[in-house]
Amino acid sequence: MATPTRIGLAGLAVMGQNLALNIAEKRFPISVYNRTTSKVDETVERAKVEGNLPVHGFHDPESFVHSIKKPRVIIMLVKAGAPVDQTIKTLSVYMEKGDCIIDGGNEWYENTERREKAMAELGLLYLGMGVSGGEEGARKGPSLMPGGSFEAYKHIEDILLKVAAQVPDSGPCVTFIGKGGSGNFVKMIHNGIEYGDMQLIAEAYDVLKSVGKLSNEELHQVFSKWNKGELLSFLIEITADIFSIKDDKGDGYLVDKVLDKTGMKGTGKWTVQQAAELSIAAPTIASSLDSRFLSGLKDERVQAAAEVFKSGGVCDVLTEQAVDKQKREQLPANLVQAQRDYFGAHTYERTDVTGSFHTEWFKLAKQSKI
């Protein structure tokens, strides 16, 4: 490749691939790299299919770094923690003073501040950038929350302004948050609030289904109506979509086949921990986190639901209340996990077969509306 690209992206799982294609679609030539080289080839092929987008793939870190125009800007989208440190170590060997690394994953903000200081000692710039909107947002327009080196932000501002979601009357959904790990901190709080919203929706679903006996068709209609009023939001919209999708592996609706066991990446727990450190009450987020913990105890819940709890005294009544959710065999966590797979491709387990599955909910919902 004779002409250097404008930017690089390392880490080509679902979010990384989609963000790379988004950047390329805005006519910024981009270099991509992944430790598993098949992901590189897959991304380049997608770029061809989706409009011959200017995506250039590399199978080794040295040629990847050297393909980018100076001062180099590289976005990482890898798992938080040790994988981030390893990727930085791999890439920084070939980078020069003034080059910039951006962590686009969900990372603990203190890790970002540690890395920014370490990068500064090498003469490199560093940003921690929250990326919100899931896989569809990454492809079509995410909300971006960069924090750290302002100089680094200015290197990439023109790209971020075009890649971010474009909101009528207010412009691109991106701004420089501030120094240190502030971008990651804001994204952490954003995710914590989202935990609460998702649990509230799940509990509304639980009441409508368990008490109101609404069918999935009726639930789809209710949430679609809610999404046209003051509850208009991304989460209400995708929830309405989820109830409309049939199971292609059998009869009925897919949401009923999703196992009621919710995963998590850690940002909700970090939010609750940080709230405790600052002596700030966050009961809704804490309760939603507890619900995710309980959903993970599937075997224990099934066993508890089969046991006979004797009641009669005050202590027995209190015990009954303490094990509300713990002795329920079925929780509305299936909806939460379906939502997580819809917006973040986090996969889900099924009630009828073993394994992890991912569904392109958005495409199926779009097809059902045609």
TrEMBL record:
The lineage of its organism: Eukaryota, Viridiplantae, Streptophyta, Embryophyta, Tracheophyta. This is phosphogluconate dehydrogenase (NADP(+)-dependent, decarboxylating). InterPro entries: 6-PGluconate_DH-like_C_sf, 6PGD_dom2, 6PGDH_C, 6PGDH_NADP-bd, NAD(P)-bd_dom_sf, Pgluconate_DH. Its EC number is 1.1.1.44. One of its GO terms (biological process) is pentose-phosphate shunt. Pathway: Carbohydrate degradation; pentose phosphate pathway; D-ribulose 5-phosphate from D-glucose 6-phosphate (oxidative stage): step 3/3. Keywords: Gluconate utilization, Oxidoreductase, Pentose shunt. Belongs to the 6-phosphogluconate dehydrogenase family. GO terms for molecular function: NADP binding; phosphogluconate dehydrogenase (decarboxylating) activity. Pfam families: 6PGD (PF00393), NAD_binding_2 (PF03446). It is an enzyme of class 1 (oxidoreductase). Coiled coil: none annotated. SUPFAM superfamilies: 6-phosphogluconate dehydrogenase C-terminal domain-like (SSF48179), NAD(P)-binding Rossmann-fold domains (SSF51735). Residues 183-362 form the 6-phosphogluconate dehydrogenase C-terminal domain.
